DNA sequence: CGGGGGATTGACCTCGGTCAAGTACGGTGG
DNA sequence: CCACCGTACTTGACCGAGGTCAATCCCCCG
């Protein structure tokens, strides 16, 4: 059932953002795990060695790879198909518990906020509330509820939005697997959520109580540092988006969005598929689906070719 | 020349945002200094006693009060007209140096980021670069320059903006006396400014080298805490503004802006004067002056009466 | 008094929102 | 296998808020 693979040093083994229906067990050599966080920073997360499993998150929770894995030196892996893993997990309750624990631990340890900590320090991190399933369209939390957790998204997608008095929904942000959210909420003493958040597809999240997170922040200076950094970056990105919406036309905004999407997911610009429904993209960009629909047609003028669901970016620059 | 005033406990002696051409010397009693920082938080800054001078910043630098002063118990003050102070300062170089030093020290110590520190801790803060004059329309810094300082605005106003490829200027933010800016810039390791910043009128600023600020942050946890808090708040405000621009019409946006302005400057809603030129307001709100001009006319529908430069807000709520 | 910058007003146009109809696609049930 | 339905998306026609351009007004200042 298991199939050996020999990987050259430096080769990409798993790519963040790609779907995946298999896991690898490391037979020999070491694998570097890294991720591009939503702010666009590439962050090194961990180094895994023989006996360890990689890629379990996408398989167990049914989503996409939420980090990239690269061979550090030559490596031998055995590839285990997703079905096989599911069978084993179903057979043994202990195995299931083990996998869930593994996923939860890794999700917490691998968030970019904690990237500056040593392996021992990471081991002492709080565990959080194991992968919790929020079915499609269910709410993680609503506006004006008290803030209790920091969330780590393991699989699926999540939408933040505000509801206006007229019942209109304004999408503020979309999150993809690997993202951490409610960071800024966590800094406001005894605050309340300013947005509602809903699962777009079935989403698994780890929930880390705010108190525990603050404890960690107090203990490790680098965590507070990274949080500051990430909030500051978010501010700049917000400014940038404001500017775009004020000055650009719909096709230009869409083009810019696709370029950033491609970059932040690590997609191949020479052809990738949109990971969201188009209506979601419209919401994210603050436009109507009709406007978006018309914008697709004009993308050629901005160096992007769309063929059905396939998107190709011709000229690549920031 | 000096004129004694007897102030009842709790009375407002100086109000943030008001113009002022006199200073007070405290003869007896104590005065509480506080300010509303740009995020809308009321922050207690200091308690001053007999012999100390208040209100010197607006007078010496020719601007508006950048903090409020309230009598803490019954107080006797002697009021010194601005002209008198200017005469004394002109007469004596030492007096001039002393006033400038006083202003610089107070500006640094009184920023809300440092509000959690004790008097002794505040005394040990770095002094920063004394009040620097940036004449009307001169640049404090430009986009893509390396970030070297945190700025404290002592008098005048300052405009942050981006320039697009087409030469268009997008105003991101306006700052008023007492504001601290480049906070988020300061968190990005060796970053570059993402906006240009220009003095609207003659502006005096204190410049605190980033390195020194980071040093302070490392020493005092509360400073990092407050910075986090303020960045998180800014994020929420950005989101809110995004939402507004997406869903509201020009008069609604203007109305909401005026209400916030009134609140954050501490103006009297029953009649105040706009502290900026209208064209600046237009820039700030991301609209053309013509659109703004038309919006004024429709403000009555939203409970705001405009009579020349006089603005009255009828119904007050968040 | 003339000049210049800011503000206002009017005429016009464009982008994108709105409404309505139509298409493509997948799933379900007979 | 096809009829039916619901969802997502597309297309067309229309409209209105706000941008653009030009003329004018207002007020301060030299």
In the CATH hierarchy, the architecture of the largest domain in chain A is: Sandwich
What is the CATH first-level class name of the largest domain in chain A? Mainly Beta
Q: Biggest interface, which chains?
A: A-B, 36 and 36 residues
Q: How many DSSP H or I helices of chain A?
A: 10
Estimated helix fraction of chain A: 25-40%
Count of folded domains of chain A: 3
Keywords:
homodimer, 318 residues, Jelly Rolls, Arc Repressor Mutant, subunit A, 3 domains, 10 helices, 35% helix, DNA-binding
Summarize the structure in words:
Two copies of one chain form a homodimer. Chain A has 318 residues and is an alpha+beta fold. Chain A folds into three domains: 112 residues, Jelly Rolls; 112 residues, Sandwich (Jelly Rolls); 66 residues, Winged helix-like DNA-binding domain superfamily/Winged helix DNA-binding domain (Arc Repressor Mutant, subunit A). The first copy, chain A, is 35% helix and 31% strand. Chain A has ten helices and 17 strands. In chain A, the strands form four sheets. In chain A, strands 1, 2, 3, 4, 5 and 6 form a six-stranded antiparallel beta sheet that branches. In chain A, strands 7-14-9-12 form a four-stranded antiparallel beta sheet. In chain A, strands 8-13-10-11 form a four-stranded antiparallel beta sheet, with no helix packed on it. In chain A, strand 16 and strand 17 form a beta hairpin. The longest helix of chain A has 27 residues. At the A-B interface, helix 5 and helix 7 of A face helix 5 and helix 7 of B.
């Amino acid at each position: 059932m298991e199939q050996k693979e020999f990987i050259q040093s430096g080769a990409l083994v798993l790519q963040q953002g790609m779907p995946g229906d298999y896991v690898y067990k490391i037979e020999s050599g070491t694998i570097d795990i890294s991720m591009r966080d939503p702010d666009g920073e590439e962050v090194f997360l961990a180094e895994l060695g023989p006996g360890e499993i990689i890629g379990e998150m996408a398989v167990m929770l049914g989503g996409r790879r939420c980090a990239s894995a690269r061979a550090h030196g030559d490596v031998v892996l055995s590839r285990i198909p997703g079905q096989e893993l599911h069978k084993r997990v179903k057979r043994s309750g202990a195995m299931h518990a083990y996998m869930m624990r593994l996923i939860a631990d890794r999700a917490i340890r691998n968030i970019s906020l904690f990237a500056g900590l040593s392996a021992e320090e990471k081991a002492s991190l709080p565990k959080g509330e194991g992968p919790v399933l929020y079915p499609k369209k269910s709410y993680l939390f609503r506006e004006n509820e008290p803030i209790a957790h920091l969330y780590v998204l393991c699989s699926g997608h999540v939408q933040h939005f505000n509801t206006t008095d007229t019942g209109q929904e304004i999408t503020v942000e979309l999150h993809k697997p690997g993202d951490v959210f409610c960071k800024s909420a966590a800094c406001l003493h005894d605050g309340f959520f300013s947005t509602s958040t809903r699962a777009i597809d079935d989403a698994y999240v780890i929930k880390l109580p705010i108190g525990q997170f603050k404890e960690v922040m107090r203990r490790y200076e680098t965590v507070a540092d990274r949080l500051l950094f990430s909030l500051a970056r978010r501010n700049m990105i917000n400014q940038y988006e404001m500017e775009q919406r004020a000055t650009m036309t719909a096709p230009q905004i869409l083009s810019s969005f696709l370029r950033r999407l491609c970059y932040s997911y690590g997609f191949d610009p020479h052809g990738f598929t949109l990971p969201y429904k188009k209506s979601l993209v419209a919401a994210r960009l603050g436009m109507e689906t009709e406007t978006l629909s018309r914008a697709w047609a004009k993308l050629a003028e901005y160096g992007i070719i769309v063929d059905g669901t396939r998107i190709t970016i011709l000229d690549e620059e920031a």
